[in-house]
Amino acid sequence: MNTAVKSSSSRGDLKAIVLFAAIVLSMPFWFPLIGGYPGLDTKILIWAIFALGFDLLLGFMGYLSFGHAAFFGVSAYTTGLMLLHVTPNIIPAMIVSIVVTMALALALGFITLRRSGIYFSILTLAFAEMLHRAALSIFSDYTGGDNGLTGIPSPELFGRVLHETDIFYLCAAFIIVGFYLARRIGRSPFGLMLRAIKSNQNRLWYTGINVPGYRLYGFLLSAVYASIAGSLMVIYEPYVATEFLHWSTSGEVVIMSVLGGVGTLFGPMLGAAFMLYFENVVSATLQEQWLLILGLLFMIIVIFLPGGFVDGGRRLRNWVQGRKAPGANAGSTDTERAE
Amino acid sequence: MVNSLFLQFLTGLQLGAIYMLIALGLTLIFGTLGVVNFAHGALFMLGAYVAVLISNSIGFLWALLLVPVILFVFGIIMERGLIRYFYDRPHTDQILVTFGLALVIQEALKWGFGANNIPFPLPSWGVGIVQLQEYLPFLDGFVAYPKWRLILVCVSLVTVGALFALLQFTRFGLVVRAGMRDPEMLRFLGVNVTLRFSIVFGLGALIAGLAGLFGGPVAQVHPEVGMHFLVPSFLVVVIGGMGSLPGAVLASVVLGMALSFSAEYSAIQQIIIYLVAVIVLLVRPRGLLGQKGVME
Amino acid sequence: MALLEVHNVSKHFGGVQALQGVELAVEEGTIHSIIGPNGAGKSTLLNVLTGQIAPDTGTVEFDGQSLADVKPYDINQLGIARVFQTPAIFPELTLLENVAISAFAHRDGKFAFNVMETPAHAHEVYEDAERMLAEVQLEKQLKQEARHLSRGDKRRLELAICLAHHPRLLLLDEPTAGMSRHETQSTIELLKRISEKGMTKVVIEHDMHLVFALSEHLTVLAQGQVIADGKPEDVRGDERVVEAYLGGAHE
Predict the structure, then answer these.
(1) Mean pLDDT across chain A, nearest whole number?
(2) Helices A211-236 and A69-85: crossing angle, nearest 10°?
(3) Residue A192 and residue C114: Cβ atoms within 8 Å?
(4) CA-nearest residue of chain B to A61?
(5) Per-domain boundaries in chain A
(6) Which DSSP state fits C168?
(7) Among A4, A161, A301, B144, which has the highest number of CB atoms less than 10 A from its own CB?
(8) Cβ(A124)–Cβ(A67) below 8 Å
(9) Residue A141's pLDDT band (boundaries 50, 70, 90)?
């Protein structure tokens, strides 16, 4: 997972984004061919956005959060409440949701980031659970408690009610831009500092870098992505379930990211697609056990292939190339963050 | 007045009891092996399931005998078969693999026994109430307390006592305590750490099993219960200080009391343990009894 | 006024008095060595200088400015860089990236939210980093991951990281520890070369060969106290120094 600075041309970058955009925008056409039902493609994009931001925190900065559902859920509730009580226009709803989530991220980051990675994982898990319980009890008047937030009107944009296809393309826009931005962040000096934090945080303290500052901003960035995803979720389906704040939601984004391959940006998005596809399409034959199988797959990946599907694909490609040209230097270490 | 205070105190001990047992295992494993076991709640849950299945078929006394053994063995297998490959891997990987295991155990139980609660009836000798005023003269009038909950409190206290005795008075315990303070040194001295690691992990699992055995009837027995108890148990460990056994005991009592005394204000009770955690962590980052520099 | 002034610094850990009333002055542009038997408090002193631990008493002043309560990264930004006893580098990153981090810290200060800056735009920084790697003769391994380096090369890399920050004061914690004769010699030459640029260096060392080859000034610590301080030739003959070394366990 390196950036060979000089050889990553901007043209290669552009190619990658265009290719990605083409795949995403054409989803409504090819996705049903592999068994995907309408609406599932939108859901995949939403979770991909969630996973993308999560990768910045885990894959780049090395911090494993088990509480990202807090941002997803709080943003979802805020959007729901905005649409319900203020205006069905999605723009103010999303903006307010992002602002509220960032305030939450600031508070949470302040408490949890100062500790080591282990504490961080435990504390994020705990505080997300606190919010979950609060939503079920203290704030149930606002959140609808166990039943969730219902009765949300159809979302609108500039006075036009948004239909399924509109929402899909809205999400597509967000993910394409989000992916592009994430790649830029990854290659920026800021992104380098995040990776330095993961690599040797202690050294960074003595290299003139304000580590707490970078940590907090990295955390905030991932929270923004989660917040956008949560907001889009409610726009996609006007209902907020308390599950959005549940630890299983946090767990799902962890699983997706690890399955796909942390640190690659593309991997977690691939993991999101895979997991949702597996849950909804493949599970038709497997009934209830899809999560059990996914859990086993997750463990296998963590134990034997920590780099996830992306790494698996890379190894496979190297092996195939090695067989095609015997004697040539097979299995070269990829130094380019290529698509 | 005294009555109600004492009852709340007792309830505090009882509420904290299950967390105490789970947290003891967690902090023991972390302090000795340096591993954060996200599957520890699942071990508690396994204990509860095994207990209820045995209890419902051949009786609670058999469960009392078998659950600790089964969980101990399971713990050893888990350590030898999985955990030990992760000693040299980064902490995030340890958390991920144990989380994965917790998920697999949860889903396997759901698949095998359904998502609903399995009723765990109390053994006949555990049913009923105890008239506390017969034993405690300072109480005024009739003060009844559920017998099983008293038993649960006693079990937790006895387990703590036994664990401390094991660590203080046996050679095994001496090695474990030394390992908790300075694992590197121990390896240097050529002490057979491997076997002891396995045993410590098995012990942690055993204690979680006890929590499941005695706590099962009080809590519930369904596939989500593992994670449900894991989060507060983690908080207990963190508040008490990671790697500190006395800390885990103290923190679980503190949390239990907080839960008990806030019972009237149900809204607060839901989130009180998190509030306590925030306060403790802001004021004393290492935890109540944690060592300075450990994970700070 | 000396570049670095240490006045009456004391530090104890539990029952152990690690440093006691340490007085030290490092003149700008010199190579100043701190030596002493094991347990003399040398590393503790270095930790105080870099902000890792706070002294119980006393002050440390850099260029007239007090370092009390200053965060380690701010101390770096003031112009103090440190090479650690066990080479501290970023293993998963390439050599170029390792040094670039420091170069960015130099250009942008301790924090910059430059999330949109492309590598092309930052090419000057990467070129600067490449130059630093050339200084320590590691430019051929630019794109290698740092974890594949030998220990000696890791130390060079660490030096490059420090140099990229263009520090005024470089602290070296036993730079030749665990090195072969040959490696030690090339380290001495390297240090000599970069010293021509006028950078002040404080070196903690055991290797007497290096100490006497390089230093212009010498401070001897024993049991947390300064027992000798002056030019190497003068200190050499000092009875107390000889006694301190013979009295304690030493090579």
Answers:
(1) 89
(2) 50
(3) no
(4) B92
(5) 2-290
(6) S
(7) A301
(8) yes
(9) confident
Contact A190, C114 (CB under 8 A): yes
pLDDT at B269 over 90: no
C251 pLDDT band (50/70/90 cuts)? very low
Please give the sequence-ordered ranges of beta strands (E in DSSP) within chain A, or none if there are none: 156-157, 160-161
E strand or H helix at A183: helix A164-187
A123 touches chain B (CB under 8 A): yes
Q: Whole-model pTM? A: 0.90
Beta-strand pair C31-35/C200-204? parallel
Nearest Cα to B160, choosing from B291, B23, B60, B6?
B23
Share of chain B above pLDDT 90, in %: 51
d(CA B29, CA B94): 12
Task: Give pLDDT, residue A330.
Answer: 41
Q: Find the closest chain C residue to A10 by CA distance.
A: C120
Q: Does A207 or C41 have the greater pLDDT score? A: A207
pLDDT at A2: 38
Higher pLDDT, A226 or A145: A226
Is-contact A239 A114, C-beta < 8 A?
no
Q: What number of residues does chain A have?
A: 339
| Interchain pair A122, B238: CB under 8 A | yes
How many pairs of residues across A and C have Cβ atoms under 8 Å apart? Answer: 123
- The partner residue sitting opposite A292, judged by closest CB among B82, B104, B231, is B104
- Contact call for residues B57 and B88 (beta carbons, < 8 A): no
DSSP bridge pairs for A332: none
Kindly write down the DSSP assignment for every residue of B18-41, as one continuous string. HHHHHHHHHHHHHHHH----TTHH
Residues β-bridged to residue C10: C57
Q: What is the pLDDT of residue B64?
A: 93
Residues 228 to 287 of A: which have CB under 8 A from any B CB?
247, 251, 254, 258
Distance, in angstroms, between A104 CA and closest chain C CA?
20
Residues of chain C in contact with residue A191, where contact means CB-CB under 8 angstroms, are 115
pLDDT at A329: 45
Percent of chain C at pLDDT > 70 equals: 95
Model confidence over B232-256: pLDDT tens digits? 999 999 999 888 889 999 999 999 9
Chains C and B touching, counted as 3 or more CB pairs less than 8 Å apart: no
C153 touches C161 (CB < 8 A): no
Mean pLDDT of C134-144: 88
Q: Do B100 and A299 touch (CB under 8 A)?
A: yes
Q: Please tell me if residue A15 touches chain B, with a CB cutoff of 8 Å.
A: no
Q: Which residues of B touch A133 (CB under 8 A)?
A: 270-271
- Is A206's CB within 8 Å of C93's CB? no
A2-290 adopts what CATH topology? ABC transporter involved in vitamin B12 uptake, BtuC (1.10.3470)
Region C95-118: mean pLDDT is 94
* Rg over CA atoms, chain B: 19
Q: Using CB atoms, which residue from C72, C90, C112 is nearest to A200? A: C90
